[in-house]
Amino acid sequence: MAQLPAYKILLLEDDPLMQRFVSLALDETGHEIVCCQNVSQALSALKLNRFDFILTDLMLPGESGLSFIRKLRQDDTISYGAEVIALSAGINAAMIEELEFLGVTKRLLKPVSVGDLQAIFVETPLQVTQPSPSAREAIDQYFGGQRTLFEQFKSQSLTLLAADIDLGDRLVAAGAFPSLHQLAHSLKSVLLLLGEQRAHELSLALEHDLALNNPVAIQIARQWDNLRAELKQLIDSRQ
């Protein structure tokens, strides 16, 4: 890839693993990344810095990414002309319509490849398809064939999966389905990036059922147990 200009980029993303993935991908091209986990942190960062780009997830705990973009459009002095790019796993037709109304024409679908992340700052990226990945396919599809980058991300991901399992257990026991939905949403993208297709499909199904009105607790617990077993097996395979 040709040498790209170095930009200062604000990344609004609540998932630490996705923050790390994006940072690893963009650090290679000399960009400076400032990571924020919620809208309040992002607004504070914008008061202290001027950015060339704002890369924001749309599904965030608390205030959403769309709400954040609306605030930027209501007061141009907040972002000082920084271009906004949407990053999300769930961009539907209604979201696209609102994003275009808000002047956001560049969008990335999670899980996103290293190549698309780097290319978004010079051109509109290709739409990312959902492959049936093995680890090798995941490396080629999302990490630009860079095995070292993949292994770094996988090592960090597996370190955090144990905490995700513990969190999921507590959320299921408490019946905290909105928070469990957020966890499933996060795991869905990470597992696809890792090439773990079955675990990805289980997290996708869990996320879907949790989004329904009045999800059935027994069914949700069974789905979590199945996903939990896959995550535990993934962790154990590295020991």
Automatic annotation (TrEMBL):
Which InterPro entries does this chain map to?
Answer: Bact_response_regulator (IPR050595), CheY-like_superfamily (IPR011006), HPT_dom_sf (IPR036641), Sig_transdc_resp-reg_receiver (IPR001789)
Question: What UniProt keywords apply to this chain's record, in alphabetical order?
Answer: Phosphoprotein
What SMART domains does the record tag this protein with? REC (SM00448)
Q: Which residues carry this modification: 4-aspartylphosphate?
A: 57
The biological process GO terms on file are:
phosphorelay signal transduction system
Pfam families assigned to the protein according to its UniProt record, in alphabetical order: Response_reg
- Tell whether rRNA-binding is among the UniProt keywords: no
The Response regulatory domain sits at 8-125
Q: What is this protein called?
A: Response regulator
Q: Which organism is it from?
A: Sheuella amnicola
Q: What is the lineage of its organism?
A: Bacteria, Pseudomonadati, Pseudomonadota, Betaproteobacteria, Burkholderiales
